[in-house]
Write a structure and sequence with these properties.
Layout lengths: L1 H13 L5 H7 L1 E11 L6 E7 L5 E5 L2 H11 L9 H11 L3 E11 L2 E10 L2 E7 L1 H10 L4 E4 H6 L9 H9 L1 E5 L2 H6 L8 E6 L4 H4 L7 E5 L2 E2 L3 H10 L5 E8 L2 E8 L3
Parallel strand pairs: 4-7
Antiparallel strand pairs: 1-2, 1-7, 2-3, 4-5, 5-6, 8-9, 9-10, 10-11, 10-12, 12-13
Helix pairs in contact: 3-5, 4-5, 7-10
């Protein structure tokens, strides 16, 4: 541990505090991690950040190990032994180092760049990082995640839901993802069929009925669900006022949830 501590102090002393301070001065906004999912076309994991306030979505394509690390922390699943990002958190904590913030600073040639702002004994240090690693560590250390305005301006936008069923799903407060074998493997799910609940808006009808992120929708009004399109098809033909019967798998156990159709 003495050797590790000496190495860290040397790095702290010699590494210049460049880049992030300028990025902060140029303007950045705080975000939260909305979900981790798979790009349906490329099958590459995507972490989606959401800006605080105006709710803009920023998708960042990442590698599988980092996606799993982020997903585990979102779902509050503790691994039996510390993973890489757990080790980083433990190391920084033992050395008395605070992670003040993470900033996604730039997007160049389809590659995102990030910096960590660390603080120890009143001294600050900025460290270059991949956004995926930075986000995984930030979640573990309860540090805020910021994105510069230039990144938001350059980023590829997410397509808004379209169609009556998609609009109804949005009114329910549900964000869903087709449950593929790849996504099931990413999130370590036993089931490979159905529609995964990627996010539930706080205070929404879905939230009020007890639906949770990570639930798997198996049937809606006795119709088997293989995709989000199947769910949208059910929602599109329902006329309010009515109730929708959802058969759900939660951590492998079947439950039934009744939810009012949106008006």
């Amino acid at each position: 541990m003495k050797h590790v501590h000496w190495f860290f102090i040397v790095c702290w002393t010699l590494t210049p505090a460049l880049g992030l301070r300028a990025a902060q001065d140029s303007g950045s906004v705080e975000t939260t991690v909305k979900t981790v999912t798979l790009d349906p076309e490329s099958k590459v994991p995507v972490v989606i950040l959401e800006t605080v306030g105006d709710k803009k979505l920023l998708p960042i394509w990442i590698d599988l190990p980092e996606a799993r690390a982020i997903a585990l922390e979102i779902e509050r699943i503790a691994p039996p032994r510390p993973l890489t990002h757990d080790l980083i958190r433990n190391l920084l904590s033992k050395l008395g180092v605070k992670l003040q913030r993470v900033t996604i600073t730039d997007l160049r040639n389809n590659t995102y760049f990030a910096l960590l702002t660390l603080e120890r004994s009143g001294q600050s240090l900025e460290i270059d990082s991949r956004p995926s690693d930075a986000i995984a560590v930030a979640l573990r250390m309860k540090a805020p995640i910021y994105v510069t305005m230039q990144v938001l301006a350059k980023a590829k936008p997410l397509l808004a839901p379209s169609g009556g069923g998609a609009a109804a799903r949005q009114k329910l407060g549900l964000q869903t993802q087709d449950l593929t074998a790849e996504l099931a493997a990413l999130l370590d799910l036993s089931s490979q069929r159905g529609v995964l609940v990627a996010d539930v808006a706080p205070g929404s009808p879905a939230s009020n009925t007890g639906l949770q992120r990570g639930d798997i929708l198996v049937k809606a009004n006795d119709k088997a669900l293989q995709s989000t399109a199947d769910l949208d098809a059910v929602l599109e033909v329902i006329k309010a006022p009515a109730q929708i019967r959802l058969e759900v798998l939660r951590k492998g156990k079947p439950i039934v949830i009744m939810i009012d159709s949106p008006s």
